[in-house]
C-alpha cells in the first residue's frame, strides 16, 4: 500500500530502526528494491530525483512506482520526491501521486547556490502548507552537503552547491535546526555532517574529523522528536570498485560512509538514509563482469536480470543492517 513518509518514520522511531531510501530511475532498480524488501519483510521508501524524472519521463516514473505498490500489495511503500529545488516541483509531484516530497531549500532554485535561513524557511513552509493539506509528508534540509576536507559538494550533477563551501555551511547547527523545525513544521529533517553525493566522498576511510556522527547526537539531543535524514550515505563498497576495475573500469581510490557509522547515527534519531550510488556501482560492476565473461550473449534480459540480483543483495544488506527487516 502507498503510505506517507511520516507514517513509516514514526514507526521507525517507535521501534528504533532506520530505513534506507533508494533512488529509482528504471525497472531494474525498482524490481531490486521491491524484491529485497519482500525477501526480508521491510517497508520501502523509493525516491525519484529531478534527474530521474528527466530520464524516464513523469508518466513512466509514476507508473513504475505504482506498479511496485500493485505488485507487492503487502508492503508499505513511500513515493518520495528527492531534492526538489522549488515549491513548484513539489506541487507537480503531489499531482503525480507522490506521498512525500523533499523541499531542499538549503540551495536556491538553481540547485547550486547556497541560500540563507529566511529563504529556506519561506520555501519549505510554503510546501508544508500545501503538502499537509493533501496528506503528503515533507522533508526539509538545513546545512549544505559537502566534504569537510575539501569544501566540495560532490560529483553529482544537479544536486549540489557549486564552488567551495565553508565549514559552518557544511555542518548543521543544532540550534538553527531546532528553529527551522519550529518555523516550518517539516516531518523529517536532512542534516549536513560531512557527507556528499556520489562516489567521491572521502579519500581514505573516514575519521570522526570528516564524518561528524557526534553532530547527529547533538542535534538529536536538541530535537529528540524530529526524524533525521542522512543524505550522501552510500558506503561505496570496495569489492564493487574492485570488480568494476577488474573488468575494464577506471575508478580511482575512494571511500563512502561505513555501514557501522550509519548504524551509530540510527541510535541517535536518523530514520531515513539516502542511497543511490551503491546501486549504481553494483549495477555497473555486474554489467561489466557479465559482458566480459559472456561474450556471445546479446539478450539484454540476461545481463539486466544479473544487475537486479546484485542490486537486490545490496538492498537486503542495508535493510538488515539498519534494522528495517521484519518491520513491514
Ligand atoms: O541526490 C542525489 C541522487 O543521487 C540523485 O542523483 O540527480 O543524478 O538522479 P541524480
Ligand atoms: P549517495 O550518492 O551517497 O548514494 O547519496 C544519495 C542521496 O543522498 C540522494 O538524495
Ligand atoms: Na530526499
Ligand atoms: Zn541527497
TrEMBL record:
CDD domains: TBP_aldolase_IIB. Zn(2+) 1 binds at residues 83, 197, 231. Dihydroxyacetone phosphate binds at residues 198, 232-234, 274-277. Its cofactor is Zn(2+). Pathway: Carbohydrate degradation; glycolysis; D-glyceraldehyde 3-phosphate and glycerone phosphate from D-glucose: step 4/4. Zn(2+) 2 binds at residues 104, 141. It holds the Pfam family F_bP_aldolase. The active site is at residue 82. Its EC number is 4.1.2.13. Binds 2 Zn(2+) ions per subunit. One is catalytic and the other provides a structural contribution. One is catalytic and the other provides a structural contribution. It catalyses: beta-D-fructose 1,6-bisphosphate = D-glyceraldehyde 3-phosphate + dihydroxyacetone phosphate. GO terms for molecular function: fructose-bisphosphate aldolase activity; zinc ion binding. Gene3D superfamilies: Aldolase class I (3.20.20.70). Catalyzes the aldol condensation of dihydroxyacetone phosphate (DHAP or glycerone-phosphate) with glyceraldehyde 3-phosphate (G3P) to form fructose 1,6-bisphosphate (FBP) in gluconeogenesis and the reverse reaction in glycolysis. Belongs to the class II fructose-bisphosphate aldolase family. This is Fructose-1,6-bisphosphate aldolase. It comes from Paludibacterium purpuratum.
Amino acid at each position: 500500500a502507498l503510505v506517507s513518509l511520516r507514517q513509516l518514520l514514526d514507526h521507525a522511531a517507535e521501534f528504533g530502526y532506520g530505513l534506507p531510501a533508494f533512488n529509482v530511475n528504471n525497472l531494474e532498480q525498482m524490481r531490486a528494491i521491491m524484491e529485497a524488501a519482500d525477501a526480508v519483510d521491510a517497508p520501502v521508501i523509493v525516491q525519484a530525483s529531478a534527474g530521474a524524472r528527466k530520464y524516464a519521463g513523469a508518466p513512466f516514473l509514476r507508473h513504475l512506482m505504482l506498479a511496485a505498490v500493485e505488485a507487492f500489495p503487502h508492503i508499505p511503500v513511500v513515493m518520495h520526491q528527492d531534492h526538489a529545488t522549488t515549491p513548484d516541483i513539489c506541487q507537480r509531484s503531489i499531482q503525480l501521486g507522490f506521498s512525500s516530497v523533499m523541499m531542499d531549500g538549503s540551495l536556491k532554485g538553481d540547485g547550486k547556490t547556497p541560500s540563507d535561513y529566511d529563504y529556506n524557511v519561506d520555501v519549505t513552509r510554503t510546501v508544508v502548507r500545501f503538502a499537509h493539506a493533501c496528506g503528503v509528508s515533507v522533508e526539509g534540509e538545513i546545512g549544505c552537503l559537502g566534504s569537510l576536507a575539501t569544501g566540495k559538494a560532490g560529483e553529482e550533477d544537479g544536486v549540489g552547491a557549486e564552488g567551495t563551501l565553508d565549514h559552518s555551511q557544511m555542518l548543521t547547527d543544532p540550534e538553527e535546526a531546532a528553529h527551522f523545525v519550529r518555523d516550518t513544521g517539516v516531518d523529517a529533517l536532512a542534516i549536513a555532517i560531512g557527507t556528499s553525493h556520489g562516489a567521491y566522498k572521502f579519500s581514505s576511510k573516514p575519521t570522526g574529523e570528516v564524518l561528524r556522527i557526534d553532530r547527529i547526537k547533538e542535534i538529536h539531543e536538541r530535537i529528540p522528536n524530529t526524524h533525521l535524514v542522512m543524505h550522501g550515505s552510500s558506503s561505496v563498497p570496495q569489492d564493487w570498485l574492485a570488480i568494476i576495475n577488474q573488468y575494464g573500469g577506471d575508478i580511482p581510490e575512494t571511500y563512502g560512509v561505513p555501514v557501522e557509522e550509519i548504524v551509530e547515527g540510527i541510535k541517535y534519531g536518523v530514520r531515513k538514509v539516502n542511497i543511490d550510488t551503491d546501486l549504481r556501482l553494483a549495477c555497473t560492476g555486474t554489467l561489466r563482469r557479465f559482458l566480459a565473461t559472456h561474450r556471445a550473449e546479446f539478450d539484454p534480459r540476461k545481463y539486466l536480470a544479473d544487475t537486479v540480483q546484485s542490486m537486490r543483495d545490496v538492498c537486503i544488506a542495508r535493510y538488515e543492517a539498519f534494522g528495517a527487516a521484519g518491520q513491514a
